[in-house]
Each structure stands twice: as structure tokens, then as C-alpha cells.
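Checklist before submission:
- one chain only
- standard amino acids only
- sequence pasted in full

Submission:
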Amino acid sequence: MTTREDIWDRLDQAHALPYGPARSALVAEAVTWADAIEDEEAAVVTRLELIHAYQWGREHWKGVAPFVWCLARQAERPDLFHHNRLYHLMWNYKWVVTAAAANPRVSLEQVRLLEDGMESFFRSQGASMHTVHGQRYYVAVDLGLPDEARAELAAWRATPRDENSDCVACDPERQVGAARRAEDWELAVATAVPVLREDVGCGEQPAGMQNLVLLPLLASGRPRAAWEAHLRSYRKHRVNPRYTAPMGRHLEYLALSGHLVRGLEILRRHASWTADADEADSLQVLLIGIALVLREAERAGLGQEPLGVDLPSHAVWGPEAGVGAEATVSRARQQILAWVRSLTAAYDARNGNPVLGRDLEQALAREPFAVADFTRILELISPSEPLPEAAPVSDLPEAGAGPHASSDAGGSGGSAGGGSAGGGSASPDAGGSDPGASPDAGPGAPGGAGQVPGGAGQAPTSPASPAPAPRQEPAEPYPPLSLPVLTPPADGLEAATRIQRLPAAMTLEATFLHQQVRERGLLPVDEEGLTLRQRCDLAMTAGAAAFRLDDPYQAMERRRQALVLAQQEAEQDPGVDTRLHVTCVALSCLRSENAAAERTEITGVDQDEAQRMQYQAWQGRVGRLHHLASRLRADVAELAQGTPQDRRTAMSGLDHLVRCSYLLNDLDLAAEVLQQAEELVRDVESRGEDPDGILRDILDLDRVAVSAMRGEPYQACVLADSLLRRHDPCPAWLALAARDSLGWTCGMYGMQEEAARQLQESANISLALDVRDWATETMANLANALGATGRFLEAAEVLETAIGLLRGPGLQRRRMRLLWVLTHVLDDLDEYARLRETSQELAELELATGNDKGALAAFERAARASYELKEAHTAAALYQRCADLEDPDSPGGALRRSRLLRRAAFALTRQPTTAMTRAQLPRARDLWQLGADLLDQAWERPCEEAVQERADAYEQLGEILWSGTELQEAGRHFATSARLYAEAGRSEDQARVTAHVARIHAILIREDPAAHLPLARQGVAQVRALLAHPRWEGNPALEDVGKVEQYLDSLGPAGAGSAG
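Returned file contents:
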């Protein structure tokens, strides 16, 4: 037979799930059980829970029936509704009224009845009319009654807040929304100031307010503040379709601020949300944003391009209105316009006025505040424009100057998430913090947790994101750029020939040609009938392509093939230019070999021996470098006496040599080569053979790199800066190379802000030229610079943009490299859901490339993210997958596998309820035992480390059993752990687990006071003895036993005999 405890257990299970149909179904089942056993209190509690589940699970209208039931029951049995339940009932009244107004299928009469009922109910409870007027304001907006909306807003300002009011961060959204509709941009921003400055906040703020004032910030002449507000709030809103309306405002902002590229990217990323909107008004805001982005795309000449993604229909608010991926941008825009106009017409028909239709057309006709700039694709956060003084949101004299001055009685509010043509009814799904998982939360109640002596405290909150450092502009602006027209090659042979004839420093065109080769599949080509030089060019190009795709081993193999062909050519034509070509190819082989060696891990020897072997191999490469250098420099001296083309060929050879020298860290040789190159360039300049100064530019770029590596950052930066100012206009290839050199040098020596500035400009230049391969490499360095200064949000945005560009054949390794960096950044941002998703993608890519070690590291990071998300089963499964990738027969493999299996066991029991934890104990025991058994393989003979590991293992088992309330057994394993820690001489660890034993005995006094009271006191004494030295003052174990001792003393002689 079902009992009340069964009902509470079912609610606990529901609390373990995210909001949505699955959670709501479990709560609905609890409602039926409460009715079946005729438990009146449980019937109230479960229905309040069900309303809450429907509301936050985006199933609003399913919550109306249980709400009406609760309302009627409260009238009949007010004693069943203590203060907390009554508060939740009143809070639910707020969203029921506004949800009705936001639904055009609810008649005007029904909306008015709900409004009147809300006022009567609030008055009957002695509540302030502040909340009533606030909700009526939203209703008036959705009913197309602007005069009534203004009157309700004035009444809202004139009445005092109480515990039913939205929180002080969410409450001002009404005034912001009204100012938006009136296009009083300054008032909208001023009202939001306390939230924007984070003087006040809640679970939905400041993101909700940042989103709401995107347009006011932009229209009031604060584009930098608007961009920062967009970036920060988008990170929150991107994760859940309940932010449909905020996503629409993000798209509106991007369309009107000139960020068309990002607008299209975000539109396509969240295209499926047209089917997920919870309310008609939320969908309306999203459709407006989509329409504006598509309008700007059409104006930019993209009208005939395919949309590329489906914009699915909505089952309720547009079952026939979806847009297919094959539709052109122009066609998609027309379909979206028809959809949103049809939806708004339903409001006007219900309202009996054309106001919302008029507001819609005004929103759709709004012109951009900035022209789309395709050269500024990548934008970072800059210091924002000044904000105005905070505007008051109350006319009461005691309210102060702004919402931060109002008292917060604990109410949780709704952010203005939807609204006809840009703001209307507040709904919990559109924003506003969750008022709590349960109207009866507390010790022993559903969703609550009982306390034991020394129980855990609250988890720390995340720190606020650091503000960006001020941007330092150069003393004078750089000259404008000369952007080249990059001509695609006709075929692979032409691409290879052009690449191999380019100077090594002029990498812009080479990168473009490599991108063309990869994307168009121009290699390999049929080599029949080709000359040795053409075949060598093809092999060199293939090697360079492999190097760019992060495969130095393949690059080394192809370049060695090219060397053989070059040597064969030299045998047929032993001229000096051919000899120089052979040497340059050999230098390329040496660079690939050096890169491959840096990635090769020497196994089977200790670390010192591995380092010695690596050093010897490096010395061998340097010796070969010197041999090649002597040959090349002799050939250069001969060519310098020849024709102008010979001297250019000679300079190209010296450029190859100096680059190879500093990459192998032979800076003395690099300096000698630079001196020879200086003499050659002076000779060329004196002959007037380099009118554009290209050879001087190449030489100085090499000097920048060598100076930076020699520890001369100032000289390197000054020279790189002068390169950017040398020509007017500045050639794009030189601007990119100089900015990347500046960024690399500044980053190496801790000048991260300047590094970020230069790398951002470089990335935007290459993106404007559509040389994405260059851009993604620069963006990786940019993300590192941003991360080094704590600008993790911007680093994540940069990396995600770069990763989005790395889709296509051959890009897997480069994509993986950026994914690794992104996992670190997401970890810093505490974005655990995205971290789990990214880490799992990375792990599967590592497995596909045969890198089990990399896959293991990625799966472990995903497991940790799942643990932080309280996804116990997922975390345990991922830790088991990590364990499966460990070879127990490899050095240290048995120990690592043991630890992973024990982590899986521990993760499995981190369930939200005791009942759910107990259900997992058998499996957790098995996993722990598998891990413990492997400890026998970890060491060949007994040692202190083995004892410590076993102590750790038994402590972990004790924690697993304790979480499942197997207290007696947990205490025995803690005692075993304490004994092993003592054997290993780890007194602090011994004290920690002994304190656990004392706590367990204190809890068990209720069962057997005579047995457990002395054992609890004995444990307290042992801990105090172990930590008697003054250095242990403040140790957590002393705090734990202090609480236990206080509890024991409170029992007294009489209480000890009947404790519990």
C-alpha cells in the first residue's frame, strides 16, 4: 500500500531530474498517490510541486488546473496552507494571470476574471498591491492597452514592495520594458544601472537585464556597453530553449548593430527553438529577431543563398509555418514575416484593437544603428561608455534612488521574457529566479535534508567575471591596409608552383593557396609527364599541407620525398641555384623532423634518461643544421654576384636558414645569418633592385623573431611596430605577419592586453580576406592571451568561433587542438554542461585518431563536469570508460585504473536522495572492490606508498557507505583507514577519518547509548591528541570533533540514556 513516505520519495526522485516532462510526470504520479490515500496535506504539497514543475518545465497551461484546485482548497482549508505554501500559491497567481494574457486563445473576459481574482486574493491576505499592479501592467501590454499600462505602472511605482514582489533585480524590468516601448532609451538604461553594475542580482540577473537593455544601450550611443552585455548574457541564454524571447532580443541587437555574421551564426545555432517556445509572446520576439537578421542578410547581398537550417514549425503557434533549410534567405524572410504577422493578428483579434500589430510593424521597420562590417568579424570587450545615474523605480519617499535601495523580502521575480513586439508579460520561463525546489523545503521535508553533527555547509558561489583591462591605443593610428585580390589556382600543379615560388615570409598568399588545395581537393595530381622540379613542388606542398594540419610525421615523409626529387634534379643540373634549392628542401625536412621530435614521447626509460636522449637527438639536428648552413651560405655568396633574380633567390635561401635556426633554438647561427642577409639587402637596395622594400621587410620580420627569442622584447616590438608604419598603405601580408609577431612577442613576455589587441586585428584581416586557415591559428593564440588575463568569456567566444571554422576534410587535428584549449576555458567559466559536451566530443575524436591517452584525459574531464552537474550515473559511466582505457599491465596502469574505478563508485552514490543512493550501493561496492583488487598489482613489494593508497581506498569506501546511511559499516572502514594512515605516519589524515568515526558514533547514540557514547568521546580524544601541536590550530577535524563534543555534552547524564 502506498504511504506518505512513498510520496515523499517520489518527489525526491523528481527533484533529481531537470525540469521537463519527465520530472512533471513523477510529480503528477505523486499527486495521484496522495489522492488515493486521502492525505490532504500531501495532496496540497504535491499539487504545489506540480504547478512548480509545469511552470519551470515550459508546460505552463498544464499548471492551471492544479492551481485552481489549490486556490479552492485554500478557501476551504486555510490551515493546510502555512506561510511558505501560501507564499508559493500567491507567487503562482502572478504567472497564471500573465500567462493567460500572453496566450491569444484566452478570451479577454477570462483574463479580466483572473486579474480580479488575483486582486481579491491578495487583498484577503493583507498583501501590498505592488505585485498586482506590476502584473496588471504586463497584462495591459499584452492586451494592447497603452494608457492602462501607463496607469498600472504608475500605481506599481506608488505602492510599497512586500514579500510577494519580484526580487529587487527583476522588479525594475517593468519600467525598462515601458521605456523601451516609448523609445526613452536613456530611462531604460538608467533604470537598469544597479543591475548592470551588479549592485543587485539573482539567479537570472544580471543576464536578464543585460538582454533587455541591448537595444537601449545601442540606441543611446553605448555600442561597447551593448556588445559586452550581449556577450555576457548570451553565455547564459544559449543553453536552454526557455530563453526563447531573450534569444530573439539577441538576434534583434545583432541585426541592428552591424554584427550580421554573428547574427546568422546564432540564428542557425538556435534555429530549432522556433519549435520550442513555451508561449506565443516568446515565439513572437524570437521571430522578430530572426526576421531582422534575414533582412540585413538580404541587404548585404545574401538573399539568394540557402538558409542552410530548418526553422521548424510550432505545434501550437504555427503548425504549418516552418521554413525548410533549402529556402533562400529572401524566401525564408518572407515566410517568417508571414508567421509573425499571423501570430500577432491573433492577439489583435482577441484584444479588439490593432495596437500589437502596429507595434510589430514598428519593430520590423526599425533601421540599423550601424552598417554591417565584414572586416570586424571578431570583436572583444572594450571599456564601456559611461552609464547614467540610476533612475528611481518608486515614487515612495523611502524607496531611495533606485531598486538597489529597496528592501528585498525574499520574493523571486519574473524577467520580462516575452511580450508583443518587444516586451510584455513576465513569465518564469522567460526569466526570473526559481523561488525554490519545494514549497515545503526544510529538514525532513520533500527536497530538504536532515543535518548531522558537523554537516557540510553551503557551496561557495562563483566569482564575478573580471573586468577587461583598459585598451591601450598606439600613439598614432597605423596606415590603412592594401588588401590584395587573392586569385584561386586553376589546379593543384598551379597551386604548388605558386606556393614554392613565394618568399617564406609572405605566408598570406601561401595560406590562401593551401586552403584552396584542401577545400577543393586539388591534390594529389597525376604526375605523369611532369618535370622533377614540378614533382618536387607537389611533394613540398603536400608536406606543408600536412604540417598545417598538425601532422608533422606526414609532413616529414613528404618532404623527404621532395628531397630525393631535388637531389635527382641537382644531378642533372648541378648549377648553384639548384644546389641552393636542395639545401632549402633539406632545411624543410629538418624543421619537420624537429617538430615531430618535440611531439614524440620516449618510453621505457626514466625521465632523466629520456631528457638525455632528447638532448642528444637535438644536438644531432643542430649539427646537420650547421652543415647545411655552410653549404647554403657559400651558395648565397656566389649568387649575390649574379643577376637581380639570383640575389632574390639568395635572400630567400637566407630567410629559410634563419627561420630553421631559431626554430632549432640556435640563435647564434641565426644572428650570423641575419648579418649576411643585411649585407645582401644593402647591396640590393644600392642597386635599386627592390623598389617596394620587400626584401628589407622580410629581413626585419626575421629580426623580430630572433630578438624576441633572444630575450629582447622591446627591440622586437619596436621593430614590428615600425613595419606596420613603414608603408602607406601597408601590404596585407606584412600587416598580418607583423601583428602576429607583435602578438606572439607580447604574449611571451606577459604583455597580454597588447598581444590580444594585435592578434584580434590580425584575425579580422584574415577573416575579411576569407583566409580562414590563418585566422584560426591567430584566434588560438588570441584565446591564450585572453585566458592569461582572466578574460575567459571572450576566450571561449573566440575559440568557439574558430572551431566553427574548422569543419571539413583534414581539419580534425587542428579542431582537436582548439577543443583542448576550450575545455580549459570552459572549466574556468564553470560552464560544466558545455564542458561535458566538448570533452566528450574531444574524447571520441582522440579515439578515432588512435590516441587512447588523450581520450582518457578528455573522458576524465567530462566525468568531472558531469559530477559537478550532479549527473551521478553519467559521471560514473565516464569514469568507468576511463578505467577501460587504462592498461593494468603498463607501468602505473593498475594504480590509475584502480583510482578511476573507485571514483566511479564514489560518483555513483552522489545521488540527490538517500533512497536513490542506497539503491546504487551494490553496484558501487562492486566497482570499489574491482578497484581495490587492482592494488595488489600496483606494487611489486610492500611499501609506504601502498599503505597510503589502501588507506585512501578505505576512506573512500567509508564515504560511499556513509552517503547510503550504512553507518556501522562505514565506521569500520573509516577505522581501518585510520589504522593504515597511522602505519604510514600521516597523522593529519588519521585525525580526519577518526573524526568521521566519532561523528558516526554520535549519530548512533540514539540506537545504543551505552555502546556509542564512550566510543564517540574516545574518537574526540584521539583527534585532539593527534592534532595537539599548535600548527594544527583551525584544522577542520578539530572543528568537526568540537561539534561532536558539544552535541555529546548537550545530552547530559540523563539524556545519554535516551538519546534520539
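Reviewer check: Strands lie at 481-482, 730-731.
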